[in-house]
């Protein structure tokens, strides 16, 4: 339930991103990308965030930074 709710909130972020000044958009896109990746990891772990911390791999952070800056 909570993962679906979080995903729907992230999907709604696109409208918010378009409504802010252009200089703010890359940071917002970066956050949405990283949080979406964390949701993927939480889902893969069966929702158990206590056994293993859901953090992105360094290469995922780098990819998200380039993707956010390139839009």
Would you write up a description of this structure?
With about 70 residues, the protein is mainly α. The protein is about 70% helix and about 0% strand. The chain has helices at about 1-20, 25-45, 60-70. The longest helix is centred in the middle third of the chain and has 20 residues, at about 25-45. The chain starts with a helix and ends with a helix.
- Strand coverage percent: under 5%
Q: Which structural class matches the secondary elements?
A: mainly alpha
Provide the gyration radius in Å.
Answer: 13 Å
Number of helices: 3
Instruction: Note the main sheet.
Output: none
Number of strands: 0
- The overall pLDDT average reads 88
Task: Please provide the ordered H/E string of secondary-structure elements.
Answer: HHH
Q: Please give the alpha-carbon distance between the first and last residues.
A: 31 Å
Uncertain parts: none
Question: Which percent range fits the helix content?
Answer: over 70%
């Amino acid at each position: 339930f909570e993962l679906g709710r979080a995903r729907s909130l992230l999907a709604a972020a696109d409208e918010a991103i378009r409504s802010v000044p252009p200089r703010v958009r890359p940071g917002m896109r970066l956050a949405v990308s990283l949080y979406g990746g964390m949701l993927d990891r939480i889902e893969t772990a069966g929702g158990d965030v206590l056994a293993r911390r859901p953090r992105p791999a360094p290469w995922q952070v780098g990819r998200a930074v380039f993707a956010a800056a390139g839009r």
